[in-house]
Design a protein that fits this description.
Bound molecules: NADP nicotinamide-adenine-dinucleotide phosphate
CATH topology of the largest domain: FAD/NAD(P)-binding domain
CATH class of the largest domain: Alpha Beta
Mean pLDDT: 96
Number of helices: 14
Low-confidence stretches: none
Distance between the termini: 31 Å
Strand content: 15-25%
Number of strands: 20
Helix content: 25-40%
Largest sheet: 8 strands, mixed
Length: 487
């Protein structure tokens, strides 16, 4: 068994892990490692490579502020381009030598005496590090629905985040289960290829037009030559998205206006009244993620697509049977059914002070201080931890704010020669009481829907109920007085 000692250990080489590594290096830290379970970096943008995958936040905002890219080919960059961008950042900032691929963390154990985390991995390796920065992703565990007979199906089936590229869809009868953010990108991309597409919809989403398109060579050259123009564009995008936060969290009247646009968009695009009825959402806009697409409604109207709104009764060896007793025979099933988010923020066994397990500490729903520190788990920092997700803007903004905060903590630990920092229980409690109070007023809690934002008991443990600049302000400075410091 190999043993390795580091000052910091980062779990995951997606956007968050790469950001943490870059900032550690920039701050002069050199004794760290990034463990990545996959055979390539990129996190969600490596895994979600399904046909049609692209970002639904503009790339000029969905990218690092310190590494703005003048060359995005489209307003909403496609998956491969985003993955290339992450690879470019790792390369440019010299991170590749720090990344250990094919290494999946299974268990973290805190040694209080030493002030060190022991990190046990699937390949038998054990690492030791004073601080662990968990960047394992909020949406990295694909959820397969608990449908009776699911494993009896004799055809091909796979999840949207584990696309089977060796399976040729041409001429096949294929089911897509789900009509969320992934499905509305997949459906238009595969419907021209398959013989028939059976689209199983449980809840119709709110869809807005996507103001997308190629970014001209002229514009790209301008962004290269005049960086302030690029920054100005990013600034405009930023404030446009912050306005949406105002609607989601404070002023639902704004959403009424947006839902009128969405309803009009549906009416314009779908002439058949019966079909349109099926596509009309019945909950308040914003309660689930608002989707952007120009090609979904046209795809749904293609002759070879059948929108099935009857609920699924079972999956059997030849296909799917719906509650009305109709059997839908299939060659393949695509599960575009989302991820374990509210219930599975951290996917490995974490043992903090006195051997307490994080799952046990979170049995009533995950919570942390600023989505980053959890009382009883010293020197463990999370990026995209509880209640840091966004319904309205770019997650990269939150990632950068959290990484900045963590760096402040790590610098303090180094400068003051601290063994450990552990957020005070009362700090975490007060923060979360205030957070849940704010959440209770948002559309996510009152919008009349069930979403992945909430646990089974309805507690929202995923979203930040405020503007991103409020989060940035709160994470600007590491407030040592809110932590128990051990020297
Ligand atoms: P999702 O939004 O959770 O959607 C899952 C879909 O599967 C929903 O339509 C859901 O229906 C349906 N479903 C689940 N279980 C089902 C069952 N047993 N029977 C029938 N239908 C079932 O998942 P996602 O589309 O993968 O998106 C998840 C998140 O990933 C998004 O909200 C977004 O944050 C992120 N994402 C981002 C992008 C991007 O462009 N940046 C793209 C894709 C995903 P109900 O609504 O009725 O539950």
């Amino acid at each position: 068994m190999e043993n390795h000692r580091f000052e910091q250990l980062i779990i995951g080489a997606g956007f968050a892990g790469i950001c943490a590594g870059i900032q550690l290096k920039k701050a002069g830290f050199d004794n760290f490692i990034i463990l990545e379970r996959g055979s390539h970096l990129g996190g969600t943008w490596r895994d979600n490579n399904y046909p049609g995958a692209a970002c639904d936040v503009e790339s000029h905002l969905y990218s690092f502020s310190f590494e703005q890219n003048p060359n995005w080919s489209r307003v909403f960059g496609p998956q491969q381009e985003i993955l290339n961008y992450i690879g470019h950042c790792a390369e440019k900032y010299g991170l590749n030598p720090y990344i250990q691929l094919n290494t999946s963390v299974e268990k973290l154990v805190f040694d209080e005496e030493q002030g060190v985390w022991q990190v046990l991995c699937n390949n038998g390796k054990t690492y030791f590090a004073q601080s662990v920065i968990s960047c394992s992703g909020g949406l990295s565990q694909p959820a397969l629905p608990d449908i009776r007979g699911r494993d009896d199906f004799k055809g091909t089936m796979f999840h949207s985040a584990k696309w089977n590229h060796s399976y040729d869809l041409k001429g096949k009868t294929v089911a897509v289960i789900g009509t969320g953010a992934s499905a509305i990108q997949i459906v238009p991309a595969i419907v021209p290829v398959v013989k028939e597409l059976q689209l199983f919809q449980r809840t119709p989403p709110w869809i807005m037009p996507k103001i997308d398109g190629d970014i001209s060579a002229f514009r790209r050259n301008m962004y290269s030559a005049l960086p302030f123009m690029r920054s100005f564009y990013r600034w405009r995008l930023y404030w446009f998205h912050e306005l949406a936060a105002y609607g989601f969290t404070r002023h639902p009247a704004l959403l009424k206006f947006a839902s009128k646009i969405s309803a009009l968009f549906l009416k314009r695009n779908v002439k058949d009244e019966a079909l349109r009825k099926k596509l009309e959402p019945s909950y308040t806009m914003g309660c689930k993620r608002v989707l952007l697409s120009n090609d979904y409604y046209p795809a749904v109207q293609r002759e070879n697509l059948h929108l099935i709104t009857e609920h699924i009764d079972e999956i059997n060896n030849t296909g799917i049977k719906t509650k009305d007793g109709v059997q839908h025979n299939l060659d393949a099933i695509v599960f575009a059914t989302g991820f374990y988010a509210a219930e599975g923020v951290v996917m490995f066994d974490v043992r903090g002070r006195n051997g307490v397990s994080l799952n046990e500490a979170w049995k009533d729903g995950a919570e942390a201080y600023l989505g980053t520190s959890v009382a009883g788990f010293p020197n463990l920092f999370m990026v995209v931890g509880p209640n840091t997700g966004l319904g309205h803007s770019s997650m990269i903004l939150m990632i950068e704010a959290q990484v900045h905060y963590i760096l402040e903590a790590i610098k303090l630990m180094k400068n003051e020669n601290l063994k450990s920092v552990d957020v005070k229980t009362e700090t975490q409690k007060a923060f979360n009481e205030d957070l849940q109070q704010k959440l209770s007023k948002t559309v996510w809690q009152s919008g009349g829907c069930v979403s992945w934002y909430q646990t089974k008991t309805g507690k929202n443990v995923t979203l930040w109920p405020d503007f991103t600049f409020t989060f940035m302000k709160k994470t600007k400075k590491f407030e040592a007085e809110k932590y128990e410091l051990v020297r």
